[in-house]
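P.,

For your records, the input lines for the assembly:
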Amino acid sequence: MQSYEKAPTVSTPWVKLDLERGRIDLVGDSYPVNSFEFYQPIVQWLNEFLTQSRQAVHVELELTYVNTGSIKSMLELFDLLEEAYQAGRAVTVLWKYDSRNKRALESAEEFSEDVSFPFTTQDTFIP
Amino acid sequence: MKSPEEARKISISDAAVAQRLERVLSEYPEHPLNAEIEWLANQYQRLQQRFEKITAMSDRLQVQLMEMNKLLQEQVISDPLTGLMNRAGLQERLAAECARLAREHTPFGLLMLDLDHFKEINDALGHSVGDQVLVDVANTLRQHMRPYDVFSRWGGEEFLLLVPAVDHATLLALAQRLLEAVREISVHGFEHAPPVRVSIGLYLCSTEEDPADSVRKADSALYLAKNAGRDRIVIFQ
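Structure tokens returned:
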């Protein structure tokens, strides 16, 4: 198992999975044609990380557009994180959004509804 | 193992599934597979909830896309300086009006307006003053607009007005009102500023024709108005 990084494309975010720091970063737009294929390695990585290490996990998401398939995969990631949190792991998620998009915060809230680990939001827009 | 009463506490929102489940569990309260059934029922319910959630989020996404589309659509057809429709927007409406004329034989009018000596205002007082004059003219035009009229900034200091369902007398009266209203505009803060005036080419389209041809006719009338000394209306003959 190792760290993993994937450059962004027009339809997929920048992905950084940091093994040493126990940290996941996703930045950009997410509307891959096959979102299952795109997110599967990330889900798998997190799964392995949670099995192999007892380290804390920190996730930072800065996604501007997320399609339905990506929403499904995101919920899958959150399921894994929630399960780990329930089992005593330190888990934190930071959701960065741009307040100029008035619906951005709504979707963050929707994602956080089902989880009990610390889920914070941060406005990235500086007027 | 849970008692049948406890088993009934599994909350399944799908009534048909819930009913069937309840029947099975009460008919065979001691069946060794009941725990498995409960587990499956819970999984089913979870899946159902997840499905509802993803659908709701997806619907919200679509609303967001629609809103952005509308905003973009508005930006594509409007002139940022004056807030009037731009050339692309008017061309679309004109095509629709030409189609309506062919269908219903309703005449429409075109008024091609051009600010007189606008270059002088720009050269003497600067482009920001020139821009303000354009905005003032646009606002003046807007005041004389009926809800179904389409006023556009056609080019630099050129405005094209599309007046649907109109007769010659009404169109001429409107042009006259606009000519006079523009004369009332003054360039603020400049005593010796050139007067704001406008020349108008008028064309009443009453037979089926190509949209571009109708614009050319209004334009040629405008050309005559300019040559005849500006600050006037010329009707296309």
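Two observations worth noting. Residues 87-235 of chain B form a domain with the Alpha-Beta Plaits fold (CATH 3.30.70.270). Residues 34-77 of chain B form the longest helix (44 residues).

Regards
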